[in-house]
Amino acid sequence: MYAQLVETGAKRVRTLEEMSPEERAFQERVDAEIKIEPKNWMPDGYRQTLIRQISQHAHSEVVGMLPEGNWVTRAPTLKRKLQLMAKIQDEAGHGLYLYSAMETLGADRDEEIEKLHSGKAKYSSIFNYPTISWADMGAIGWLVDGAAIVNQVVLQRTSYGPYSRAMIRICKEESFHQRQGYQILLDMMRGGTEEQKQMVQDSINRLWWPSLMMFGPHDDDSPNSQQSMAWKIKRKSNDELRQMFIDQTVPQLEFLGCTAPDPDLKWNEERGHYDFGEINWQEFYDVLKGNGPCNRERITTRKKAIEEGAWVREAAVAYAEKQKQRAAA
Amino acid sequence: MTDKEILQSYLLRLADSDMILGQRLCELCGKAPALEEEMALMNVALDLVGQARNWYEYVAELEGKGRDADQLAFLRDAHDYRNLLITEQPNGDYAVTMARQFFYDVWHYFTLKGLVNSSDERVAGIAAKALKEVTYHLRRSSEWVKRLGDGTEESHRRMQDGIDLLWRFTGELIQADDVDQQIAAAGIGPDTAQLTNDWRGLVKEVLQEATLTPQPDDAWMYLGGKRGEHTEHLGFILAEMQFLQRAYPDAKVW
């Protein structure tokens, strides 16, 4: 997940007739569901779009460790602490794996991370919300990883081979995280005190809408989506994915015995889907532009880690160089 | 102390040391110098907290007071904690983090090597699993001490500072007290003189390769963790780590 607004550089999708012969061969390959591999020719727009999307995704995994790191030192039991630590470790692994997939496109990890730090590159807006209670560790696992899975299950069929394979691997672990997150909430709702139950409901109230925002703008306001769909980087539209997520999540919400902060949320027999209220799009764009509750803190923390670690990385390089010279001597 | 109390006291040192160092490593989440290090630090922390849980479960059984592993970890105050003082020292820069890890890993490795042959089968079993993990921890922290010690001028200076800063807490790792000696005599734990020699031998070997200077064997040492006398840091660590259990004493599930 975690790519919400990816520029494709295209105003509209071109027809096969308008394409150059090699671009046409590329599009036919995509249309025939044959994966594009790093050595295949690809349009520059396709390459740049993928670099932006995969790097956003990787950045999101890394920044996403911070709201959880906020609670890993305060987890209430050994079991929950170990689970959260394992989840964070998986996320670091996903980040590495995605950066590697991105590098197959000729992008440089350090350069892309620099773009994150300068504000040029984005990451999922959800991680700009604070985690202010332990229940948020449950709600993030359930809602945020849940939303990520809906997106990523579809991305397993994305047209770029290395990205598709990364998604297959990552999806397995994310499903595990989602079940654990839900269990945190369920245990508190079933056997918890009144205070714990309130903690759960409060967490859902705060994270519900930001989770729905993870799917990005409405299809009508998403000019880049069409090109991404034609290239089969994206396989389903933002609104389709959001609806899928809501349809699968509401029964789980009811099973918990909790409610969503949306008076318009109700089953629509005719459509066979849940109807839901309008997202606060102003908030969505504000957060995306850097004006969310924790944008500054998240980026500052990441920048500080990388800047203060510079001497460590330099030492590792210098040492490796010395070892090489010694081996050669 | 009865034999059982001595064993509990010894096992709590292992459990608490693992727990507190694991907690310190958790503090580094999202702050490591590289993404690979994020993974590795969390991996080591995960091993340590997992080992702590195994030891706590055994202590809880031996105690037979109805306390479980969580209560031991989250509801004891500092004076009941028996962790080695080095584990509660702040993360500092990456050189301090690695110096702390290296000193601890050497002690941990040789201690577990002794415990694997323990006359107490349960102890031997837990130690055998832990030893596999700690063998990797030690290899990793030794590599980092060498990399930083023999890397750049700056990293060498920082690494030497880290070694010098934490050296005073290493006496506790190798100076046996009554509990250590009785545990060794009972065939439960490692031979104390051998542990001292092994620790000193390997530390000196790695530091030499890293172009770093150890402090003399008779340097002044700060002791106390094994008998519950801690530095000022532990109270804050516990305040954070135990927050939920303390703030919601009526909660039965989490």
TrEMBL record, chain A:
Protein's name in the database: 1,2-phenylacetyl-CoA epoxidase subunit A
Any one GO cellular component localisation term in the record: cytosol
Database matches in Gene3D superfamilies: 1.20.1260.10
Example of a GO biological process term: phenylacetate catabolic process
Domain of life: Bacteria
PANTHER family: 1,2-PHENYLACETYL-COA EPOXIDASE, SUBUNIT A (PTHR30458:SF2), PHENYLACETIC ACID DEGRADATION PROTEIN PAA (PTHR30458)
Pfam name, any one: PaaA_PaaC
Species per Swiss-Prot/TrEMBL record: Marinobacter profundi
Alphabetized GO MF terms: phenylacetyl-CoA 1,2-epoxidase activity
UniProtKB/TrEMBL annotation, chain B:
A Gene Ontology term for the protein's cellular component: cytosol
InterPro entries noted in UniProt: Aromatic_CoA_ox/epox, Ferritin-like, Ferritin-like_SF, PaaA_PaaC, PaaC
Gene Ontology terms: biological process: phenylacetate catabolic process
Highest taxon of source: Bacteria
PANTHER family, alphabetized: 1,2-PHENYLACETYL-COA EPOXIDASE, SUBUNIT C, PHENYLACETIC ACID DEGRADATION PROTEIN PAA
NCBIfam families linked to this entry: PA_CoA_Oxy3
Protein name: Phenylacetate-CoA oxygenase subunit PaaI
Organism listed in the record: Marinobacter profundi
Gene of this entry: paaI
